[in-house]
Amino acid sequence: MDAPAVLVLGIGNLLWADEGFGVRAVEEFHRRFEVPENVRVMDGGTQGVYLVQYIREADILIVFDAVDYGLPPGTLKRVEGEEVPKFLGAKKISLHQTGFQEVLAMAEMLGDYPDHLLLIGVQPVELDDYGGSLRPEVKAQIDPAIDTALAFLKDHGVSVTPRGDALGEDNTIASLEMTLGRYEAGRPAEDEAFRHGDNRVLASEGWRGPEDFDAEMTRLVHTAAEQS
């Protein structure tokens, strides 16, 4: 009997704080474990429907993600089988979740759907922090999330091997420029960059909108036309 095709997938957007949980979890899984040829470990990011072929090829699918379960922030929850699409679409946290629900529907419509499907999700603490990293409560759930994935794989007869030494950060399956260390170290201080689209932009004396918005738009259009 052929070994099942396994896909361990992390999805999410690293740029929006806890939205990056799925990618950070799959990065860490890759750093710490070697997998056999029948197992693919993948950063799915926000690729949405571009992931459909990988889903179609998988007999066993494990997804790490940030999910709005309506639970206390930082809570880890596993969902299995037919329940997974319901939670991926329960509330639109970001564009990638709706896209991934569509990916599953497309795979099913095309007749290739995983035999076993597990969603390992964490309830976000903070999403509206552009350029932010995982909050401590969410980052603390990476190890338990990986343990959950390992147990699921073991239950289905799939073995992975701990690396003698975890890979260095530069041996990432994700973007080299977005490794956790670079991402967190390179972020501007809060007083140098607005992070939340907060009211300081509008309330400060440093910026004022035009007194006559329509007149200003007309002026800009005419200026652009003259320069073209």
What does this structure look like?
- It is a single chain.
- This protein has helices spanning 21-32, 52-57, 84-88, 95-109, 136-139, 142-155, 180-185, 200-203, 213-227, and strands spanning 6-11, 33-34, 39-45, 60-66, 76-80, 116-122, 161-162.
- The chain is α/β, with parallel strands linked by helices.
- The protein has a single domain, classed as Rossmann fold (3-Layer(aba) Sandwich), CATH 3.40.50.1450.
- It has a 5-stranded mixed sheet.
- The model has no long low-confidence stretch (mean pLDDT 85).
Q: Any chance you could write out the topology, listing elements then pairs?
A:
Layout: E1 6-11, H1 21-32, E2 33-34, E3 39-45, H2 52-57, E4 60-66, E5 76-80, H3 84-88, H4 95-109, E6 116-122, H5 136-139, H6 142-155, E7 161-162, H7 180-185, H8 200-203, H9 213-227
Parallel strand pairs: 1-3, 1-4, 4-6
Antiparallel strand pairs: 2-7, 5-6
Helix pairs in contact: 1-6
